[in-house]
């Protein structure tokens, strides 16, 4: 029985993790989880899986819940995230929080040599060098939950990483893939949230539309697999059936395929190295699909992807600045305070103005993160 701590239980990935934990209750035991402000979903998880420790965003919610569930221990805020991540009984941490808020708690869990199933790509983007160095030092396995990285991880199973020629991350192109940049001028929040293949949270759906999501994934791949950026390619593949590919020295290409369902990579990270049946999983029928499509990425059209490659190649605090600028700009777009195209314009301006510091420590990263968000906020005033 694997004992699990889960950060971000009521978000899209967290909720699908909860679904897997329910369907394989003989394999997994949830001991601690964090949630934000969704108290109804929080109560549902407590009633069903009876964890020992729960953290919510606000103190007032923690107090109310404590009265209702006297046998569960409640905590809140940033310290609550760390308590959940470092719960002494758990051996696996699933980090499914949104944005760079997951960083400190992930580092704390790594220092306890827990296995980290990481869905929180922002943590790897802003502090990849710290996370991987600590993971090595404390012998904490980092397992990808992102579908592309899970695909690469699976396609590299038993292979010698030194014999990899390149990896190819597939990209659906997001909700505006058939539009030119000119046609993006007046798109609305509602249009942007309408992703063709994947059901995901709002932030990542916008990131898919700008392709910053793929940019973050390119950096995530560089961190997780230790490959230089010239060996990481992106390929447009509108059906999202091939989740990514690995090409080897001998020209062989190994890919992982399947019906788009985030529960597959989440469950694989939990069950690794075993595979469990996927409850109500839809099997891939290639004959029914008939055709798959592929196309080269246009970096002028998807400017955010180019910015991410630039930041990745530069390394240092510009990665944090880029990520924080993106998080702040996406939040402003969702509040209808800026237009869709202003998202990458703002990121580009932040990156151009940034004084880069290479190999930053945690304090510097957190400082750049906060300052960048403030600067982006002030840009709309
Ligand atoms: Mg992905």
Provide an overview of this structure:
- With 381 residues, the chain is of the alpha/beta class.
- The protein has 3 domains: 2-144, Rossmann fold (3-Layer(aba) Sandwich); 149-261 and 281-305, no CATH class; 315-381, Rna Polymerase Sigma Factor, Chain: A (Orthogonal Bundle), CATH 1.10.1740.
- The protein is built from 16 helices and 12 strands.
- The chain has helices at 12-23, 39-49, 59-68, 77-85, 103-110, 121-137, 147-155, 189-192, 202-210, 212-225, 263-271, 286-289, 303-314, 317-334, 340-353, 362-379; strands spanning 2-7, 28-34, 53-56, 73-76, 92-95, 115-118, 142-144, 164-171, 232-236, 242-248, 253-257, 295-296.
- The strands form 2 sheets. It has a 7-stranded parallel sheet with strand order 4-3-2-1-5-6-7, with helices on both faces. It has a 5-stranded mixed sheet with strand order 11-10-8-9-12, with helices on one face.
- Helix 14 (317-334) runs antiparallel to helix 15 (340-353).
- The longest helix is centred in the last third of the chain and has 18 residues, at 317-334.
- It starts with a strand and ends with a helix.
- The mean pLDDT is 96.
- Magnesium ion binds at residues 146-148, 217.
- Residues 146-148, 217 line the site of magnesium ion.
């Amino acid at each position: 029985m694997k004992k699990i701590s889960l950060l971000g239980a009521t978000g899209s990935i967290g909720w699908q993790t909860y679904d897997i934990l329910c369907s394989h209750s003989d394999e997994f035991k949830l001991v601690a989880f964090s949630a934000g402000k969704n108290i109804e979903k929080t109560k549902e998880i407590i009633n069903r899986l009876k964890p020992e420790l729960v953290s919510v965003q606000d103190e007032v919610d923690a107090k109310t819940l404590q009265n209702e569930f006297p046998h569960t221990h409640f905590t809140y805020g940033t310290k609550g995230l760390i308590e959940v991540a470092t719960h002494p009984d758990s051996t696996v941490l699933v980090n499914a929080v949104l944005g760079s808020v997951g960083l400190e708690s992930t580092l704390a869990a790594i220092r306890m040599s827990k296995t980290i199933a990481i869905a929180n790509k922002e943590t790897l983007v802003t502090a990849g060098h710290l996370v991987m160095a600590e993971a090595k030092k404390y012998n904490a396995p980092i397992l990808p939950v992102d579908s592309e990285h899970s695909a690469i991880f699976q396609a590299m199973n038993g292979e010698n990483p030194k014999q990899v020629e390149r990896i190819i991350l597939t990209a659906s192109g997001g909700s505006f893939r058939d539009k030119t940049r000119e046609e993006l001028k007046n798109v609305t929040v509602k249009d942007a949230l309408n992703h063709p293949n994947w059901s995901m949270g709002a932030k990542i759906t916008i990131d898919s539309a700008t392709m910053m999501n793929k940019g973050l994934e390119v950096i995530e791949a560089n961190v997780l697999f230790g490959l230089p950026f010239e060996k990481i390619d992106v390929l447009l593949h509108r059906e999202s059936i091939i989740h990514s590919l690995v090409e080897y020295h001998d020209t062989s290409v190994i890919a992982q395929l399947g019906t788009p369902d985030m529960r597959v990579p989440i469950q694989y990270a939990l069950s690794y190295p075993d595979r469990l049946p996927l409850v109500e999983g839809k099997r891939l029928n290639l004959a029914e699909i008939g055709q798959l499509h592929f196309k080269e990425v246009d970096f002028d059209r998807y400017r955010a992807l180019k910015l991410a490659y630039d930041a990745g190649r530069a390394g240092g605090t510009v990665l944090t600045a880029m990520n924080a600028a993106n998080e702040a700009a996406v939040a402003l777009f969702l509040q209808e305070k800026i237009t869709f195209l202003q998202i990458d314009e703002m990121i580009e301006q932040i990156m151009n103005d940034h004084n880069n510091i290479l190999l930053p420590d945690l304090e510097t990263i957190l400082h750049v993160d906060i300052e960048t968000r403030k600067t982006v906020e002030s840009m709309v005033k």
